[in-house]
Design brief:
By secondary structure, the chain is mainly α. The chain has helices at about 55-60, 65-95, 105-115, 120-130, 135-150, 155-170, 175-185, 190-195, 200-210, 215-225, 245-275, 280-295, 300-315, 320-330, 335-345, 350-360, 375-385, 395-410, 430-445, 450, 455-460, 465-480, 485, 495-505, 510-520, 530-550, 555-565, 570-585, 590-600, 605, 620-630; strands at about 410-415, 420-425. The protein contains 31 helices and 2 strands. Helix 11 crosses helix 13 and helix 26 runs parallel beside helix 28.
Length: about 625
């Protein structure tokens, strides 16, 4: 049993592929030198593809060529990366060399790019520190010095902001602005902060008007409107290039005109017209919207805005806007009337044949809408034709002109759902008779002495607004004759007396009357003696005082203040105006009136001789009252 089961000897460990005479290679067979001659051994080197012929292997599989190509490509890639890094470093270094670049918002981004490209910190520190001049910090230091010397901080801030705005406007480059904007990849945080302040919004409005193609400015304007500041953008042409922005600005501007009354129209209408008339597309869009609004209830104010805008468009764009006005006024339903209107408006002159066509249509039982006759340009043509001094209209055509003007002035229509349900011609006959009577007087070219006999008839007819407008036009043309005042012997010319009555009866004509009085006041009258000039201008000022007494206060006083500022009116005349006004006014006063009138009163050159030593005079009383009751009253 012992001989049969002999224990296992560790030295005689089992070797599956050899007993030691073939070496230690488990795959060696002893015939090939145990790996020493592996070129012809299919198993040497553990390469399953080795067939024992090295040259055949390389040629068959191309391993060496691929390795060389990969190494070459890797080398090219390294060279390209190094070249790109060198370009980035060079660009960043040139940027770092700019004055005060460390204050720029993009400094951190460029530092990151520079260091990622292998740049060294030493160069960056040297460039940023050597080119740091501390402009902003110096400005802040000067501002602090000014405040320390007693200057109001608000004034200092305004000075800095105004100078900075002027520099930005002078050096603004739209291409660079667009590049900065695109590089940011979104809305820059500094831009969002700027548009929160009115000062910088005003800067963007001005820049947008000068650079309408700048994408960054266009986007900024849209951001401003999204924040609800579209009411400030009425004078920005950039708003006209974006339909969303323009719609918001148009809506806000129209609301401002409707809610502010007559004063708002005086203040905002010029800028509104400028915006609407920026281009054909803005004009058509705005007029179409306003015509839709005017058809609603109480649409008379918006209809007036339409007409004012059309008048402004004709001044800037010529008669090309006529066709748009005719198309929007429902004239397309009446082709004959449309053709007659377009012909006269395009030539800016009335034509008897076209007037006759309109007369035939408007004398029918179902005439075209009266709005067709109420185009401002057409009304002015009728006024100038009928009330011009020495007007010469053939008798067979005169009735047509008078009837159409009367029809446009007094006929009232009621519309419902696009259909006319009522037309009132109650005052048509009386208005026609009044126009005919005044036309006869105006075209007769009678001297003022003979017109006194016609005063009763004139005063009876002047109560009609259309007649008053005609008389005002006639007065304007009459007194514009250089020889008119040379022949005048009365202290107050008859034509100026007629203006007083017009001012009494028609508030809506005050603005037109004031424009005429301003022109008469500013005319130098070189043909008259100096004393006669002074008396004439004093008479004109009396008409202005009368206009003020009828409610036209701020426009009149504001013009006198402009005369004081420009020094284009004799001080004695202004003193006369002040004396007349103080005699007719009494407290309480509006703050706006005080702000305009008080500086005139406090001017010692004007009112110095009107003040008494004891302070008991109208001038002193007015000043004391204003100082006591108005905290923002002007100071001497």
């Amino acid at each position: 049993m012992e001989d049969q089961f002999e224990p296992y000897d560790a030295e005689d460990a089992y070797k599956p592929y050899g007993d030691g005479q073939y070496g230690d290679d488990p795959y060696g067979d002893g015939a090939y030198g145990d790996g020493a001659n592996y070129d012809d051994d299919p198993y040497d080197g553990h390469n399953p593809y080795d067939n024992g012929d090295t040259g055949t292997d390389k040629g068959m599989y191309g391993f060496e060529d691929e390795r060389e190509e990969e190494e070459a490509e890797e080398e090219l890639f390294k060279q390209k990366v190094e070249k790109d890094d060198e370009t980035i470093r060079s660009d960043c270094l040139s940027v770092f060399a700019a004055t005060d670049y460390i204050m720029e918002p993009g400094v951190f981004e460029n530092l990151r790019r520079y260091f990622q490209a292998g740049g060294t910190p030493e160069q960056v520190v040297i460039l940023l520190s050597e080119h740091y001049t501390a402009v902003a910090q110096t400005v802040n230091l000067f501002a602090e010095w000014l405040i320390s010397t007693g200057v109001n901080p608000t004034e200092v801030q305004q000075m800095v902001e105004d100078h900075l705005k002027s520099l930005i406007i002078k050096h603004f480059d739209p291409k660079k602005a667009d590049k900065i904007f695109s590089d940011e990849g979104g809305t820059p945080s500094w831009l969002e902060g700027m548009i929160q302040h009115r000062t910088w919004r005003q800067l963007f409005y001005k820049l947008a008007g000068e650079h309408p193609d700048c994408l960054m400015l266009n986007f900024t304007i849209k951001l401003i409107t999204d924040l609800g500041y579209q009411g400030e953008i009425g004078n920005v042409s950039t708003a006209c290039h974006q339909i969303e922005v323009f719609s918001k600005v148009l809506q806000t501007s129209i609301g401002k005109l409707l809610e502010g009354g007559e004063e708002a129209l005086h203040i905002h209408l010029p800028e509104f017209s400028k915006m609407v008339c920026h281009g054909e597309h803005t004009y058509l869009y705005a007029q179409a919207m306003m015509h839709l609004l005017s058809s609603e209830r109480d649409g008379s104010v918006i209809r007036r805005v339409c007409q004012e805008v059309q008048k402004s468009a004709m001044k800037s764009r010529g008669n090309g806007v006529v066709q748009i006005g005719v198309a929007l006024s429902s004239a397309a339903k009446y082709p004959r009337a449309c053709q007659a209107l377009a012909s006269m408006l395009a030539r800016n002159a009335l034509n008897p044949a076209d007037v006759h066509v309109l007369y035939e249509m408007y004398t029918k039982e179902d005439p075209p809408p009266v709005d067709l006759l109420r185009m401002p340009q057409l009304l002015e043509l009728f006024m100038h034709t009928l009330f011009r001094p020495k007007a010469n209209i053939k008798p067979e055509h005169r009735g047509n002109y008078i009837y159409l003007l009367a029809h446009s002035a007094c006929v009232h229509e009621t519309w419902k759902m696009g259909d006319r349900v009522n037309i009132s011609k109650d005052e048509l006959k009386q208005t026609s008779q009044a126009i005919e009577k005044i036309h006869t007087i105006c075209s007769s070219d009678k001297p003022a002495s003979e017109l006194i006999a016609e005063l009763t008839a004139i005063y009876q007819c002047i109560r009609y607004p259309v007649v008053s407008m005609g008389i005002l036009y006639w007065v304007d043309k009459t007194v514009s004759d250089p020889s008119y005042f040379e022949r005048m012997t009365d202290h107050t010319p008859l034509h100026l007396i007629l203006m007083d009555e017009i001012i009494n009866l028609h508030n809506l004509i005050h603005d037109t009357a004031l424009k005429l009085l301003i022109r008469l006041l500013e005319d130098p009258y070189p043909q008259l003696d100096v004393l006669v000039q002074m008396e004439l201008k004093k008479t004109v000022l009396d008409r202005m005082v009368h206009l003020l007494s009828k409610g036209c206060v701020v426009p009149v006083v504001n013009h006198i203040k402009k005369c004081v500022d420009k020094q284009n009116l004799d001080m004695s005349l202004i003193r006369h105006f002040v004396t007349e006004v103080l005699d007719m006014i009494a407290p309480p006063y509006t703050s706006e009136f005080v702000q305009i009138f008080l500086p005139i009163i406090e001017n010692n050159d004007i009112t110095g001789t009107l003040r008494s030593e004891d302070g008991k005079d109208p001038v002193s009383d007015f000043i004391v009252y204003c100082k006591t009751n108005y905290s923002n009253a002007a100071t001497t």
